[in-house]
Amino acid sequence: MRHVDRRYAVVLGVLAVVTAVVVLGQAEVLASVLSGGWSAWWLVAVVVARGVVVWGGRVVTQRFASSTKASLRKQVLRGSAGPSVRAGSVVTLVVKGLDAVEPYFAGYLPQLAVAAVVPVAVVVRLSFADLTSAVVVLVTLPLVPVFAALVGLHTRDRTRAQWAGLAVLGGHFLDVVRGLGTLKVFGRAAAQAGTVRAMAGAHAASTMRTLRVAFLSALVLELVATLSVALVAVPVGLRLLHGGVTLQVALLVLLLAPEAYLPLRSAGAQFHASAEGLAVLEAAAAHGPPPSASHGSPPRGTLDLILPEGTDKSTPSGTACGQPAVRHAVTVTGARAPDLRTAEIVVDRVVVRYPGRDALGGMSLRITPGERVALVGPSGVGKSTLLAVLMGFVTPASGRVLVGGVDLREVDRESWLRQLAWVPQRPTLFPGTVGENIALGSGGGVRDVRAAAAAMGLEHLVDAEHALSSGERQRVALARALVRDDARMLLLDEPTSRLDSGTEEAVLHATRRLTSGRTALIVAHRPVMLGEVDRVVAFG
Amino acid sequence: MPAVVAGVAAELAGIGLMTTAVWLIMRAAEQPPLSALTVAIVAVRALAVTRGGMRYVERLAGHSAVLRHLAEVRGRVYDALVRRPLNGGDALTRLVSDVDSMQDALLRCLLPGAVAVVVGVIALVATGFAWPLLVGLLVTVCVIPWAAHALAVRHLRALAPLRSALAEQTVVLLDGAAELTAFGALERELAATGQVVDSLAERERRGGLGAAALAAVAVGVQFGVALAFLLSGAPAHVVLGSVAVLEVALPLASAAQRWAEVHGSVRRVREVLSRPEEAAPPETELPVGRVGVVGASGAGKSTFLRQLAAAHPGLAKGVLDDAHVFHATVEANVRLARPDASQHDLDRVAALVDLDVPWDTVVGEDGDSLSGGQRQRLLLARALLADPEVLLLDEPVEGLTIDHGDAVLHKVLDHTTRTVVLVTHRLAPLVDFDHILVFEDGRITQQGTHADLIDTPGYYRDRWSTERLPVTANSRR
After folding, report:
1. Beta bridge partner(s), residue B437
2. Number of domains in chain B
3. Which residues 6+ apart lie within 8 Å of A396 measured at CB?
4. Residue B173 at interface with chain A, using a CB cutoff of 8 Å
5. A with B: how many residue pairs have Cβ under 8 Å apart?
6. What letter does residue A411 receive in the DSSP assignment?
7. CA–CA min distance B48, chain A (Å)
8. Shortest CA distance to B309 belongs to which of A177, A175, A186?
9. Would you say residue A367 has pLDDT above 70?
10. Looking at the predicted structure, is the pLDDT value of residue A119 above 60?
């Protein structure tokens, strides 16, 4: 229940009370009408009230579930929008996974509130009408959770073992289907067909063993509920026979007794929905800010992440560490970045730790203002990582980067990034026109964008929205950097790697323009780039 | 079928329980001799037990039938995929979850539907086709589910573009997060995605209104029928019995809604099952000797290897770029290549590739619990165990350090005397190869030996010179 905000809890409480009133009223009216008391038209009033409660309840809970989902979605997006590599699981969670919280918020929780209020109301009303029946209900009602718990306790270990087995079996089919290509290559596809059927059959048999037990608690619930109705109806009937109670009271008892058990049954039926919803909520909490402390070691394959709120978790830096960090992206407080027109950049024995290996190997490098440096070396040695470190995307495990004598970790990220222009290895194209893509994050006017596009030979594509070739993408990225007038340093990651020799010449020309008068760090794979720089630094 | 029978029995017992109990009380009020009530008293108790028991039987029988059916469907889906593979991991994941959704279609839609129809017909016969019940059943069994289905279909159709917009926006946001941060545009993009999220929520809220109204209407109909019976002077047990009968039909609205959601899954599974056999793979000539394949990423190297494997089943095997590691032991994964291999064979290939993981280690989903390098060596060991005519190796030492990778690859090449086709981004291993193919933009643009290629301007020579640079560079120009 800790996921529920207080307002919704109040709303659910009110709904449950109103439901209880309607349930009692309906039984009252039916008993009275059938025993010849009130006019039948009272029934109309009660049914209208009930319809309104059903409608209102569903609208309110649905509204709340939708808003909760929306805010969870935003929270997950904000929390995971960093250069993490595993986009797939987040996309699934955001688009589809979070739907599982809807049955939890709009189905299970309201039902739980009703189950807490209605049985109590029914017992109280019954005790005024017919104490004996009230006692019967009061005694049998706790049997439902008690028996369910007993059955659950008795079978818990077995059920758990079987569910664990089920997960393996269930995953097997997906696993085999995913590996079908591999099976085919090794000529094992046909042989596996039998195994798939056998596994699926075993899955079915094993599931049934689990269900036979799992349904027992439902059986107990059902039996207690129906037997209690019999236990109430028969004695009341007999007492009625001897004039011990009035017909109206007897009918009221008969109509109310089942209502005491119904909410418990409904809540029980929605239990699995709640389990799935809760699991998704946990997953969402793990993604969203604030970053959970348990994720200190990043998952396989991700960098030690960069998002502003996650910075400095591995390094005991002096600033603002004790306070809960500011959670908004790109608003980390810090010293204003030194002006790169005059400030020197010093990379001082930097090591970046990836899971399982280290990169950069304690490298040091000094870049003076206006200098153009090429980085060369085999793949995987850490050239792109160095660019990421300079942008503050990756925090070094040891060593530091100084900008004009100030540690980069203490520099205000926003003002620092404003001085950089980055051309990544695989530029992302965002939805929209090429022009909008070029204008990304720059205040530049239409003319600047057109000029940058023209410089990269893209003027005919400015208004285009269709897919671009990899060479065109690369040029969009270069234009994106070019349009950033105020950028003082360029970080180019293999700017010509995906270009054919024709466009390469154009891009070289543009790069020359881009770098003139600016500091530049260029990761180069092809020798042509080396003619454009002042210095070549070899890695490896 | 037994599930429907048990379900009908359970519902009838429930209705009978209510009707008999009401009859019992109404009759008792007339103060007849006790003997007039004995049958009813026994019936109430018996029906109470029957209802619970039959519900249990229904659940078990329903699940058992559905699970057996799904096992069969899984087998057939597998056969269909062997005949003609489905491209893309997402499509596969969806297909597998589609098969799972069929469980819902059967258990939550068709079973309650069938039970409600049978119970309704029996109730109609029992009441001599009383018109209030007939109308009530028509509305709750046909009209309301139909309307719920129509609403749900419309709602889903309205949601679909918003959902795909959200998916697209999310992918862009996550893939481009580094660039957005660097260019100071992350906040703006988050806000844009937030707008999509909000309009999705708004749409969901509106969709909920119709369903909520239908639920209210269903309750109204249920008691409207009772009122009609009441006004026409029917006895109390018929009035309340009709309420119990219509109670059975109430869940059909949500069943119809669910059907709208899972119907697509059922259709997609049927489509996969009925797809014709795949066209024969394109003819690709088998190379001979040691062949290197190089080119930028996305230039068509991996596709070329997969075509070779598809065109020459049984002859060309190896480590392809989509090679899968099964969630099983290391041994099962390697032995897959040759089930009858001896322990000696296994140990030999493991030694060749430095595979240092114990044979009985369970590797996790797609090798998740192995390191990248271990996973790669497992794949290599598997390929070597198969010992094919043509050994296909797509970046076989990716994930190993450069030195270790070179050493492992060297041992593998030394060991095998067969034809080898090696895709690599490092050119050093190709120096003594018989033939090298250079791929650019999906086709071969250059070929020849290493010596030929470094004499010709182009991709290979450029790459070679930068690969060699670290040894010579670090000079100030």
Report:
1. B293, B447
2. 2
3. A315, A350, A351, A352, A360, A389
4. yes
5. 401
6. B
7. 5
8. A186
9. yes
10. yes
Subunit contact A81:B34, Cβ cutoff 8 A = no
Mutate: best of A182, A221, A236, partner B, most B CBs <10 A: A182
> Are both A284 and A320 inside the same structural domain?
no
Query: Closest approach of chain A CAs to the CA of B70, in angstroms?
Result: 8
pLDDT under 50: residue ranges of chain B: 470-477
Question: How many other β-carbons are positioned within 10 Å of the β-carbon of residue B30?
Answer: 10
- Together in a domain, B39 and B64: yes
Mutate to test the interface with A, among B11, B324, B325, B366 (most CBs of A within 10 A): B324
Are A525 and B462 a contacting pair at CB < 8 A?
Answer: yes
Distance (Å, whole) CA B457 – CA B96:
49
The span from the CA of A94 to the CA of A85, in Å, is 16
Residues from chain A that touch B217, judged by Cβ atoms under 8 A, are 51
Q: In this structure, what token pair is assigned to residue B471? A: 């040894």
The one-letter amino acid code at A257 reads A
Counting every residue written for chain B, the total comes to: 477
Domain range for B432: 290-472
How near does any CA of chain B get to the CA of A365, in Å?
Answer: 12
With contact defined as beta carbons under 8 Å apart, do A47 and A30 qualify?
Answer: no
Instruction: Give CA–CA dist B34/B32, Å, rounded.
Output: 6
Angle between helices A87-95 and A41-80 (to 10 degrees): 160
Q: How many residues does chain A have?
A: 540
Q: How confident is the model at residue A160 (pLDDT cuts 50, 70, 90)?
A: low
Q: Identify whether B281 is part of a domain.
A: no
Q: Are residues B26 and B146 in the same domain?
A: yes
Q: Are residues B266 and B297 in the same domain?
A: no
pLDDT tens for residues A331-343? 345 678 888 888 8
Residue B168, domain member (yes or no): yes
| A91, A254, A417 member nearest B25 (Cβ) | A254
Q: Which pLDDT belongs to residue A38?
A: 80
Q: In angstroms, rounded to a whole number, what is the distance separating the alpha carbons of residues A98 and A76? A: 10
Domain housing A14: 1-130+263-288
Report how far residue A159's alpha carbon sits from residue A213's, in angstroms, rounded to the nearest whole number.
8
318-347 in chain B: CB under 8 A from chain A: 318, 320, 322-327, 336-337, 339
Q: B122 with B175, same domain?
A: yes
Q: Is pLDDT of A135 > 70?
A: yes
pLDDT at A152 over 90: no
Q: What is the pLDDT of residue A14?
A: 92
CATH code of the domain in which B77 resides: 1.20.1560.10
* pLDDT tens digits for range B96-154: 778 878 887 888 888 888 888 888 888 888 888 888 888 888 888 889 999 999 999 99
Q: Measure A1 CA to nearest chain B CA, in Å.
A: 23
Across chain A, mean pLDDT equals 76
> Taking a C-beta distance cutoff of 8 angstroms, is the pair A405, A366 a contact?
no
Rg (CA), chain B: 34
* Mean predicted confidence (pLDDT) in A274-293: 66
Q: A320 and A459 in one domain?
A: yes
CA dist., res. B292 & res. B306, Å (int): 15
